Amino acid sequence: MANLAPPSTTGVGADLRAATVELKAFSRRGFFTLLGLVSLATASLAATVLSLRFLLPNVTYDEPLLFKAGQPSDYPVGSTTIFTDKRAVLNRDADGFSAILLICTHLGCTPRWFQSDEMFRCPCHGSRYLRDGVRFYGPAPRPMDALLVGQAPDGTLYIDRSKIVARADRLKA
Ligand code: FES
Predict the structure, then answer these.
(1) Count of Cβ atoms closer than 10 Å to residue 69 Cβ
(2) Are 162 and 62 in contact (CB under 8 A)?
C-alpha cells in the first residue's frame, strides 16, 4: 500500500531538500560568476591586443618601388632587359633609356617578351604590345605604363615604379 502522508518538514528529508535548494542556487550563482569572469577576461585581452597593435607602426614589407638597375654600360643600344621580379622593362635606344611597367592593362597579367618578334604577349588573353609598351592587339584597353628612369650621382641607373612618365621621356646617359 502506498504512503499518502505529506512530506515531512523535519528530519532527514527536510535537510536533503534544503541542501538541494542551496546547491541549485549556488550552481546558478557560480555559473553567472564564471560567465562574468570569462567576459571580463575576453574584453581585457581584446583591449590589450588592440592597444599593442596601436603601438606598432603600419609598416609594409613589400619590395621598394624604386630599384637599382646597374650601370649604363651594362646595356647595349637596342637592348631590352626584363626585370621579371620587379615587373619592369628597361629599353636602351640611341636616344636614351626608357622603362615600362610590365603589367598588362587588361587584367594585370605579366606579358612575356619575345625577342624574335620584338613584342610582348600577354599569356592570359592574348594582348600584344610593342617593345615600348604600346598595345596593338587584344583586349587590353591601353599601353603599358612608362616608368621613370633616373641616374644616381654615382652613375647607377634606377627605375622608379611609382612614377609614371610620358612615353617619349628618355634618360640620356
Ligand atoms: S590580362 Fe593580359 S590580355 Fe587579359
Answers:
(1) 21
(2) no
Give me the tens of pLDDT residue by residue for the chain, a chain 173 residues long: 445 555 555 677 777 777 676 666 668 888 888 999 999 999 999 999 988 888 887 777 777 899 999 999 999 999 999 999 999 999 999 999 999 999 999 999 999 999 999 999 999 999 999 999 999 999 999 999 999 999 999 999 999 999 999 999 999 98
Distance 1 CA to ligand 1 centre (A): 93
Ligand 1 centroid distance, CA of 62 (Å)? 24
Report whether residue 119 contacts ligand 1, using a CB cutoff of 6 Å.
no
Q: What is the side-by-side order of every strand in the sheet holding 88-93?
A: 66-70, 157-165, 146-151, 96-101, 88-93, 80-83
**122, 129, 137, 142: which to mutate for ligand 1, most atoms within 8 A of CB?**
122
pTM, two decimal places: 0.67
CB of 149 shorter than 6 A to ligand 1 = no
